[in-house]
Fold each of these.
Amino acid sequence: MPATYTICGALIPIAEGYTTVDVQIEAERIGAIAASLPVVGTLVDATNKLLLPGFVNGHTHSPQFWQRGLIRQLPLELWLADVFDSSTRDLEKIYLGALGTAINTLLSGGTCLMDHLLPIPNYELETIAAAVRAYKEVGIRAFIAPMLQDQSFAAGLPEGMKSLALKPFPLSTGEVLAQMEAIITQFHEPEAGIYIAVGPTGFQRCSDELFAGCVELSDRYNLCRHTHLLETKAQYKLARERYGGSAVHHLYQLGFLDDRTSLAHAIWLDEPDIAILAETQSTVVHNPLSNLRLGSGIAPILKYRQAGVNVAFGCDGAASNDAQDLLESIKLGSILHNVTDFEYKHWITPRAAIAMASTGGFKGVNLADQVGSLTVGQVADLVLYDLTNLSLLPRTDPVQLLVLGRPAQAVDSVWVQGRRVVADGVMQSVDGDRFRQTLLHPAQEHSSPQFPMIHQVEAHYRTVMDLPECGFR
Amino acid sequence: MPATYTICGALIPIAEGYTTVDVQIEAERIGAIAASLPVVGTLVDATNKLLLPGFVNGHTHSPQFWQRGLIRQLPLELWLADVFDSSTRDLEKIYLGALGTAINTLLSGGTCLMDHLLPIPNYELETIAAAVRAYKEVGIRAFIAPMLQDQSFAAGLPEGMKSLALKPFPLSTGEVLAQMEAIITQFHEPEAGIYIAVGPTGFQRCSDELFAGCVELSDRYNLCRHTHLLETKAQYKLARERYGGSAVHHLYQLGFLDDRTSLAHAIWLDEPDIAILAETQSTVVHNPLSNLRLGSGIAPILKYRQAGVNVAFGCDGAASNDAQDLLESIKLGSILHNVTDFEYKHWITPRAAIAMASTGGFKGVNLADQVGSLTVGQVADLVLYDLTNLSLLPRTDPVQLLVLGRPAQAVDSVWVQGRRVVADGVMQSVDGDRFRQTLLHPAQEHSSPQFPMIHQVEAHYRTVMDLPECGFR
């Protein structure tokens, strides 16, 4: 049973400006919000602190924690070859990667994450178990979408199956779905804050049968759906080649898109695609850092908002966003789009950005009716920011400072499902310094590591993407 | 006389990978770099630390320190109305703003900044004196370019002089230049690390005579030249209206462009303009955060690099980049351009980015022959980063982690002109906590402050920029 708290004197944003309130947390929920409340349970002094609902990191890949700073400057399809070649096969590193990702999320304002998690081949259940162990230990709310595919790497490239002799994917669609069901029955535990979601990696390496099987599992077990969508121009070309049209329309026909579906990236969409996302109430998860790092493009976020498509923010994995700071994603993901529209009245304000990160994020994982706003009766996923932190001074507009500044260690306290998991900036259930020591060894510099698979793919990629044959790298 | 140091066991990047060296600092300069050196002076243990040359914050406006988080989401021309309306007129705040900007720069890897400083009217010399006091106290290398203009706000807008009834600029060109010369003779003191530069604000509010006068002062006193250049589409339109052609060509004809000239923003340039920058060896200072925040555009940085134009990084003022973190500018300023060119072999690598920030930055202020690289004989502007900081773990490629990650408090030590101004992450000559306390009061939330001047300008701006007459804000 979580403890009871009275947060006293917290600044909260209201329609016009700010006000100062007390907030009671009782039995996991926000029990009361008022100007002055009797102190019940633990008193938390929130003088000079800003209280906001927790944010959602709507898309990440926790094992890539070990690939931070490792991968060269490459577009997704070639970067992916390096990522696959350097992925960890160590279950302890899976656990530590999830731990690190959860800590980064909590200390940057997130109370919930969507881990699109690539299992270690032949150790699929053990991989999920390692991540679940970490998330329970830290106390974050975690969606785990095991990344599924039933087609080879070659299938993910335009003309890939014609020209690339890469090994086929080793499991059948039925085997992949059977594993997925085993994961669901073993690990899906919403009351503990651990949710399994169906996560086909993306249409580019998944058959229609795999998508259909995921839809069936999602319906039967009431699970969220998550996938990569049209992250690159190569994927846009591939969809035209494979379906003779739009990947979004194809997923729509397969019944994959609904109000429990979140779609990572969603960069190369046309107007009719956007209308489908609005109609199906699907959520776009915007990963601006990764989209720049991989040269994928600028997602049409202002168009999504104008069309009524729900947009959340994500960090993406550390191999393509070498930091895992949700506030950084929120900042860049809001200001980036100002250069796409001269009509400044369309620009995303800092207040809109925090609504996208909280309400929008929880809507994307189908929990917005229970969590994501400062409302009495909602489950208490709350974050308290220290406004006396140097990175938030001098004090002007606190939400503008938080979103447009570069807060460093400004998170004072975090509650997840009413449980205080961060207090005074310190993780409560994990020894942060011991975790840091664990990461210190071995401290061996990797410089421009050379991985083999890219050499099988690069010439083909350059041909299909109309890049000159001889690079000068 | 600065002290002598032996930095022992520092990791430094070399052509292939990294190596570990000792570095001696003697009489302001790098005295020796070798695998093993006798300890002279103060021993600095650099085990698990990365040593790099200091970076240059090539463009900022220190008084905007007080406008962090304050200004709404607006394009430059309207934002500027709010900025002018909310600029500080308090000399103590000028001093504290310069102090804060210098601290932010040092703790994010910079040893030098270019402060394009708007003096308080009628207190021009006092304004410069306040900033100089702060920079000397902190011990940063500072260029101060007093921001000069001799035309009104209205002149800076297309058709502005025709349609806008704003008050004319109160000083004549001669008066402005006389003030500038007084500032030079009183404050230009290179041996103390304080350099005055000529800084006409931009062609949009400066006459040809003012530019000519600045060129003459620059030549006579051997000063750097600094100006805003073609930051917005409105400025591009204005140049066509005023000169019948390119602002770059016009500045070239005025003799303003040379290898001591740095140009902030440089977004709306055509191919012939780029050729002029290359020919004159001018430097572009890239301010990516500000350019997104104000919707100004994405500067064609990859084209500049291909044309041989020197590019440095800047933060710009805190009213348009509410953080002042140089590493954030370097990160965004390198990855942003990946979406502008599918040829990934053109993308800026982290190693190229740190060269732009150090060598490129010092070239922009005409000091690259003396400072900006890890070379024996160069003046010691050096920064040591702690690789055991959680934000730089797990250890993969240290330079990739530094540039592509989100380092928080990773700066261990900073030397400027051989003087250690940061040690163990702590400012040596300024009490950081006392500074923070100074900023705490008054802590009054400002929410959506309403400033008057924008109402005189917005309708005109919307008309000349072809935006619909009735906004729906």
Note: The radius of gyration of chain A is 22 Å.
Amino acid sequence: MSLVRVHNFSISLDGFGAGEGQTLETPFGHAGSRLMEWAFETRTFREMGLHGTTAGSRGVDEAFASQWGNGVGVEIMGRNKFGPQRGPWQDEEWKGWWGDNPVFHTPVVVLTHHPRPVLEMEGGTTFHFVDADPAAALEQARALADGGDVRIGGGAATVRQFLEADLIDHLHVVVVPIILGRGERLWDGLEGLEERFDIEATPSPSGVVHMVFSRKAAPQD
Amino acid sequence: MSLVRVHNFSISLDGFGAGEGQTLETPFGHAGSRLMEWAFETRTFREMGLHGTTAGSRGVDEAFASQWGNGVGVEIMGRNKFGPQRGPWQDEEWKGWWGDNPVFHTPVVVLTHHPRPVLEMEGGTTFHFVDADPAAALEQARALADGGDVRIGGGAATVRQFLEADLIDHLHVVVVPIILGRGERLWDGLEGLEERFDIEATPSPSGVVHMVFSRKAAPQD
Ligand SMILES: NC(=O)c1ccc[n+]([C@@H]2O[C@H](COP(=O)([O-])OP(=O)(O)OC[C@H]3O[C@@H](n4cnc5c(N)ncnc54)[C@H](OP(=O)(O)O)[C@@H]3O)[C@@H](O)[C@H]2O)c1
Ligand SMILES: NC(=O)c1ccc[n+]([C@@H]2O[C@H](COP(=O)([O-])OP(=O)(O)OC[C@H]3O[C@@H](n4cnc5c(N)ncnc54)[C@H](OP(=O)(O)O)[C@@H]3O)[C@@H](O)[C@H]2O)c1
């Protein structure tokens, strides 16, 4: 069975995966770019073409960042990661933050209570808008993954749901030494989560701490 | 000017410094001993005589734990660290969790809205019950410290107040890889705290991550 993985999910010391007030100009709300700065410096993120043009680092941050694509056949993301619109779609011209040729190059399942037609992008990315609980969404994603692993791309509300449903095998969380004070919390409702995972922490010279949660038991199904 | 320091303050991944439901049998509420287990294994905590009799570790956990007493002339603690009673004292026989000869061996200022007479214990510990805001409590503590540093001993509500008032020079926080889900949060109300501190993270083989916050500017006064 393919694995369900989270990579590069960045939270503040107080546990927020995004700030308050997401808009077109501020995809992370009042957090600005602070949660992702460690990643923007890496070779992997530079090669996505969105975050500067110099070569990018090859240290421990890159070692972790580079894992996100290996063997992944599909991403599942929440509707708020896809864009800043809320409620029924006002503007179906919106095609995500990532331009005409998005960085994913696989099918992407966008969870939403407001389904809309499939969006085919350049470079192999297709956005599928799906209204389903985590288990059903995972089944649909696996059907699109061509045998590859499933990446849960965030945001916090989405990762949390899959953790609650005990569907995640590998969770890479990056703790950034800032206190955001408000936003979307990752850990809410997950008391006792540590019992299901082996946990390893690795600090980076950049100041972040990489935490890897590896599921103790094999996936149940 | 003497320094104001926090040592060995242990929080869960979701930021709680104690669980819910503190009682005489469970000083950390539903957290049980999980927040402090890393410390109980160290030589410093073993020598306090409260947590087992074998020799104790001398690795990175001990290196941090052992800083707790060096040069400290007084502790300030919250009333909930002192004991499980709430509201007006029902039982003035209660003398803290630490027996007749407490581990402090210095004056200890206990913050409370319900002052009571000074308690003199064996071994140099005296408990002073003080109703004062952080700045005034610090002044009283310094007068008792005989030139030594001031340790802020917790719990979360107390550390948080002194951080809000920008009175802390050195903060050692230990992040324990558990999700408590409920209890007293350390970081609430401290948005932007990182701007005032240099922050360093060191993981331990025990699984915890030591975080040291060193104040950027010299104390203001
Ligand atoms: N920290 C990181 O590493 C990271 C990673 C990715 C994204 N982000 C940031 O995180 C923020 C978004 O995170 P978020 O926690 O606010 O939201 P999110 O997880 O991206 O999306 C939540 C929304 O998705 C829809 N949804 C989720 N589960 C569903 C289900 N089972 N069935 C139907 N619809 C479902 C709902 O929208 P509707 O009901 O409106 O359809 C829900 O409000 C953005 O600011 C983004 O930039 C951060
Ligand atoms: N994680 C750790 O490393 C660590 C360290 C120490 C303790 N703890 C645990 O933390 C828990 C206690 O923490 P907590 O956050 O609940 O409470 P706390 O900080 O120990 O005490 C808070 C109480 O102290 C009094 N107080 C605080 N500031 C005051 C002020 N400026 N003026 C007057 N009174 C003031 C108030 O009590 P009244 O109004 O009732 O007088 C307040 O409710 C305990 O479970 C303890 O075992 C954990």
Note: The radius of gyration of chain A is 17 Å.
